[in-house]
């Protein structure tokens, strides 16, 4: 039965008494499955180009675009007249750019892809190259099988060659198309990488390039950083990092957002990966961006810093030294609950560190907002806050535990014992038991027991003894038996303890 | 199965859930498809069978921990099941309106709806699935409609058993509460409608027991929503508040016929619910929680609204008490729930609503009831009044409490079990209250005028029908003894007679553990209080008790034997002169292996043997030397067990401390060999800690040289190994003040009174040993426990014994065997080092300065300074 496996899992993930702090850090993907809808505030995987106005002045000179049926398009693209090919390709591109229900699948089924790929190579006709690249961009923005069709049609190599095209519009459209391909899956991303796209992409970044173009390049780079299982190879990451560092100094919102997303993907992994990013010295700027009023910058920069503090104690310390703890309080009380949640998650991993880091967390005034979240946060936020408290109690010194209790953490924790989430209930029981043990050492247990009772904690823990989850029942029973037994009544009579150990000089 | 009768179906579903736990989904891949196919059958008997099976399979999603395996299964289930379930839900609701006039069809359809709602709960429990987020509109709109639905055909005549409508609505309340609690962001826009629907439901639901679950679920839903900051606006309107108070809270606080029945016929259950808070699911409790929730933001208005109600209910009562007494009960209950913000058993209410004048209410409405001459009139109101004193004892001024004490004593005579139990409990709680400077609030002198009547009434209450083993009364007896101390001495002869008679009676069939425990505590208190003033009186206690004790031992009353041993230890320790022969006659019997088989006996028996060794070591050595091997046999048996080894060490330490050395000489080597064997077989942290304390005690008692010689006598160089592998690395783990002190003094002796430490190969261990001793003084205790010991340590921790009940008033003072020779162990170390350095000038400072680390050196210099000595 799975419930029997749980104690072991708990020892590893949480109730941990050895000294390896990394074990307590919760990686984002403990359970990789999701039942929920994908989140709206994540970065777009693929984007279709649906601009009405053609940005390319060269095509405006040509005859007004004609509207054609699919059959006409097919027959014209297969002809040899470059002008007719252009007309047909443009018509196809327009179909693909319709705001509603674009005929992506029909175009692919009509067998246009190989021809479009051919047109990418017609360097004499940049406007044809442009229309073909655009059409392919939009096909690749579709579901996986369509992206796959573009790749199988042999588009990657010619697209990469277009990165060196003298025509800026063509070049920009190629960047976009490659972004859509890389954003599909780790496999396609690696095809783009192994076709040596990265050096060409990086070469495009300069101070003279226009902002919309630079946005496209940044977004494509971010897709090349996306996905784990497997991660992009470390060598390519190393090539990209200096450019990402450069882009992170930009002032444009979209560029900053996509750069941060790229970094968040790169840090969502093992400590070596995190180390690569931390080594570029990117943290102070990231922490600065965490103060941004733009949600699109705040979200990924916070995510990245959150990922970094899942790393080693040293990596976490770099983030602390960069000032993350002075920004977190305002994020913990941010109006958006998704930001509160990410901030609390980051905090929980700082709390998983050694007691010196826990001390810094206290010094930066993190406890009051934490307690406020436990009290009034949405459930998903409360959950992260509970993890924070749990990590705090496992790693904190007795002194720090006292401060935690004094900050009023017990009241909301006790209230959360009635929450419909067995894991959280179990963690809270463990936290309470841990705090009781500390109080026992200080001969303060009686006081703490009374406090818990006032808060209605005993009633709740007693009721949990009957919980259907056996582990919860057992933990509740142990707490009641070892801390709230009738014998406690006599603690006063017996507790007149002579503390000879204190210096008596 | 699907064609079998409903009762059978239920059994079969349970069977399927057990099989499913093993086989589903991997080994039973087509189960889901098969189930979904049956939804099409149109036969609701079959459909309900499928739904019931699904419920058995999926309900574990409500209590299992998130895991990859679990979520993979849920995802699979959602993909196959969520859409068909939704369609079935819609179809069933439509059929309900088609068959609105067909009672039997409706019953089947509503059973389906209940099961569907339960499935909804299970499938939405772990997280909000994408499908249900996308289809929230459908589900929530229909749930909302069902909440507001009524159909005469579905109403039942049964007052007790909940009908289908109630069960369905109750489950929908749970579903809404789940969403409100966990998926607030997504559920927000539906919530206000549910709040309205649920309180309308409450307003229209009757008082019958069958609605209890529905009502308490519905109230709990409101209680959980109203204390969230962003829903505050749903409640803040004065009219809304008034109508919630008037129509939801007040009616659910009324004392109902069912409560009255319990009060009279099932008092034990009533007391447990009312006093100990095991009333979690009751209407009254839910209503109280709602009051507390509303007070978070609206304390002023809510208090104002209720004050009006309280006054009008009290007026109703005043008009005709014998008819309207329930109005007063409700008024008291309302005041109580309104005023109490935080409560503990030990102190009653600890935080009160400042807007309620508790003392005034006490004087005007509580005291008059208790002062009435007839203690048996309006028993419910008497119980309410006494309970009021109990829970507001920290808010009502002392002079008023003092007035109520004789009234409470008077109510010990009430016939109603609830009333005299509450009176005893209230007295007990008042007597434990703390005043300034940590003394009890009431002094013995203040209670003195009532001593006789108090004791008489308490013991008389034990003769009232239904209360012969009433634990509250016995606890009050114990507490009165403890408070009154020597004031009870004149009554001891009668009291001890009554107690021994009670003991004899209950020992025939012990059934109330708490009662028994307090009874033994009361016996211990009688002994302590009397013998403190007159030690010679111990003999009369022995005369009174030994007869009953013998009977208990002879009849082997297992529950009482550990208590008897503890009382005997207390009696034996009270003897100032040599051990009486009656005890010596018992001594051989205590060593019988059969007694030691029961783990519950062990702590008490060890305690008793320790008392024998403390008081009678010389007698044992001279008159019972042949029993020493038996004693060591007990030790041997105890240290062989991981659970009881610490008890074995307690015994061994007493032997070393008290027995004349020559009487154990011949066994000493064997003792060490046994300890080494256990060390080799299973070395646990607890054993090491006890072992360290023992060898240091040995060193103190027999000298450092003797310790070195006994180790090296077992095997050459053994002493060095023990130092290096056990003492130095593990000493930091020793816990307990006395234990640490013993180790400190023992190690000091090893350092300063053991010549081989100065001039053999052991010398290299001298500084490390000193370093670890300074560590013991200065560093925090090392309480890490190796991973492999995690799961044994809960039950094995000393002091934690489930089967053993320790008597607080039989407890002995913490014993410090080195107390008479060493006061401050740091100063003692400094002085001893100084003495050593005068014997061999120059060596100590050089050993200290060459290899002690800087921190330790600094601490050591501090000790030397404090002792005003220097090292030569």
Automatic annotation (TrEMBL), chain A:
It holds the Pfam family Arm_3. One of its GO terms (cellular component) is nucleus. One of its GO terms (molecular function) is nuclear import signal receptor activity. Residues 1-57 form the IBB domain. It comes from the Eukaryota. PROSITE patterns: ARM_REPEAT (PS50176), IBB (PS51214). The keyword Protein transport applies. Functions in nuclear protein import. PANTHER family: IMPORTIN ALPHA (PTHR23316). This is Importin subunit alpha.
TrEMBL record, chain B:
It comes from the Eukaryota. Residues 428-863 form the Exportin-2 C-terminal domain. Keywords: Cytoplasm, Nucleus, Protein transport, Transport. One of its GO terms (molecular function) is nuclear export signal receptor activity. GO terms for biological process: protein export from nucleus; protein import into nucleus. InterPro entries: ARM-like, ARM-type_fold, XPO2_C, XPO2_central. GO terms for cellular component: cytosol; nuclear envelope. Found in a complex with CSE1L/XPO2, Ran and KPNA2. Binds with high affinity to importin-alpha only in the presence of RanGTP. The complex is dissociated by the combined action of RanBP1 and RanGAP1. Interacts with CFTR. This is Exportin-2. It comes from Trichechus manatus latirostris. The lineage of its organism: Eukaryota, Metazoa, Chordata, Craniata, Vertebrata.
